[in-house]
């Protein structure tokens, strides 16, 4: 049981550090109302989860699954920041950006998972 917690924690730490680095890099080159860093992070995370779910449906490795899906992807993607950014957009009355961000994140996130699943399944 301790091994599983360590795997999740290690994956989460790596995912969180990559998220932080992505945010820093994005904010260096992009300054706008639209929260691009979180958008990119969540869409890429969805794509990666699709690939990993497809892989682990054929290759059972609970330890690696905990490390990569629960830990890394859980630490990399961020629903709480997405939600807070939506509230900030609402409060600053950027309603069109709010709608585009919310719908874009949900629709493209689901498509990214599907694409990740589809690409990996097609290669098996």
Query: How many strand elements?
Result: 0
Helix content: over 70%
Q: What structural class should be given to the helix and strand makeup?
A: mainly alpha
* Beta strand %: under 5%
Number of discrete domains: 1
Helix and strand element order: HHHHH
User: Kindly state the mean pLDDT as a whole number?
Assistant: 95
Q: Give a short account of the largest sheet.
A: none
The geometry reads as: globular
Radius of gyration: 16 Å
Query: What's the helix count?
Result: 5
Low-confidence stretches: none
Q: What's the N-to-C terminus distance?
A: 32 Å
Q: Topology, please?
A:
Layout lengths: L1 H28 L6 H23 L3 H15 L2 H13 L3 H28 L2
Q: What keywords describe this structure?
A:
mainly alpha; 86% helix; 124 residues; 5 helices
């Amino acid at each position: 049981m301790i091994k599983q917690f360590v795997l999740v924690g290690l994956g989460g730490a790596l995912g969180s550090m990559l998220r932080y680095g992505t945010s820093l890099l994005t904010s260096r080159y992009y300054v706008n109302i639209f929260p691009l860093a979180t958008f990119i992070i969540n869409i890429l995370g969805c794509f990666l989860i699709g690939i990993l779910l497809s892989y682990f449906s054929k290759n059972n490795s609970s330890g690696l699954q905990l490390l990569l899906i629960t830990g890394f992807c859980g630490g990399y993607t961020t629903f709480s920041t997405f939600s807070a950014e939506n509230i900030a957009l609402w409060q600053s009355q950027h309603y069109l950006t709010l709608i585009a961000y919310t719908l874009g994140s949900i629709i493209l996130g689901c498509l990214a998972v599907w694409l990740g699943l589809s690409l990996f399944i097609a290669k098996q």
